Amino acid sequence: MFPPPTTPITNVPKTKSEKIKSKDIKIEARPLLLDSQNDPFKKVVEFYDGFLDEDEFCNGPRPSSLADLTDGQLGGYVASLMTTHATFLCPFCHQFATHFHQKLLNPRKHGMADDEKFLFNSALAHFPDPQTICSAVLPVCHNNYAAVSRNLTSATKCLECSLCSTLTITLLQKVILNQDVIHHIRNSTDEEIFKNICSEICRLNTTAVTGFDNKNQTLCRKFLLNQLDWVLDVLKQYLLPSGFCTKTIKACENPNEPPNILHCLKLICPSLGFPLTFICPLIPDEPADAAKFLNIKPPKMEL
Predict the structure, then answer these.
(1) In 177-260, where does DSSP find H-type helix?
(2) Residue 135, exposed/middle/buried by CB under 10 A (0-12, 13-18, 19+)?
(3) For residues 131 and 142, what is the distance between their CA atoms, to the nearest angstrom?
(4) pLDDT of 220-257, one tens digit each?
(5) Element containing residue 268 per DSSP (H, E)
(6) Is 98 a member of any domain?
(7) Which residues contact 42 (CB under 8 A, 6 or more apart)?
């Protein structure tokens, strides 16, 4: 996904224009889910690419501790991990996406009238399945998805609670409770998905079968927008970590006692490839080393 490291030719200094040109190289991701610049897959790939500073990541100084990592190196590690090595995240992504499909979206249509169910199923047909979602968010999951999405390792189980809490809190704060983002989601979905769905339906003779007036595109889009509003509203309560992570998917046995993340990172190391492997010895796994890294002073012992 990223260009290979380059080694400058000795005794030939880089000109200012050459340096700027190398840093201006950007990956052009093709839309996967939507035929526009708003495609989620395109945005995710460009987001990861934005983390990568090739010169600092590949040719920067070798850190002697985690505290020595520069912003460019940390960004490079994140981009490389999420796109090439993070297969341990695939089972969690699959579980999360599958649960959203089976427990939230599909049950919604129960009890709907025939015309409403017809419209709702038409919209669901355009919604990406768990494999597409996880392959877009974590490109490393795409190859051999059936195997990697079910490969529950000790690292996955160790990180499960923290991942669930972090993901749900991030989704709530950055998306679900952010009115500007919600407004953008509603407008983009209506213009780029619902509009097309309803235009296709208007060409069908569905009135006799479903009872839906197939010529009323405004009514069609309004119904689908109402369903989207229902989903977004439900998620405000549904994604609260105390309920979702502990009771719904049972990722956290005790949310008040999160696992040792540094220990979990140590468990991930055997599955990592170069250049991430050399960071593993730097992870302070022992309690004393972790406390020192986190600047936690040991409690005083009272006699």
Answers:
(1) 179-189, 195-202, 207-210, 217-238, 241-243
(2) buried
(3) 8
(4) 899 999 999 999 999 999 998 888 988 888 888 775 66
(5) helix 261-268
(6) yes
(7) 29, 30, 31, 32
User: Which range marks the domain in which residue 247 is found?
Assistant: 90-129+150-268
Q: Is residue 257 part of a domain?
A: yes
Tell me, yes or no, whether 213 lies in a domain. yes
Residue 15 belongs to a domain: no
Q: How far apart are CA 131 and CA 149, in angstroms?
A: 9
pLDDT single digits (tens) 97-129: 999 888 889 888 888 888 888 889 988 888 889
What is the Cβ-side half-sphere exposure of residue 301, based on CA atoms within 13 angstroms? 1
What is the reported pTM?
0.72
Cβ pair 33, 136 in contact under 8 A: yes
DSSP percent split of the chain into helix, strand, coil, nearest 5: 65, 0, 35
Q: How many domains does the chain have?
A: 1
Q: In sequence order, which residues have a C-beta less than 8 Å from that of residue 13 and are 6 or more positions away? A: none
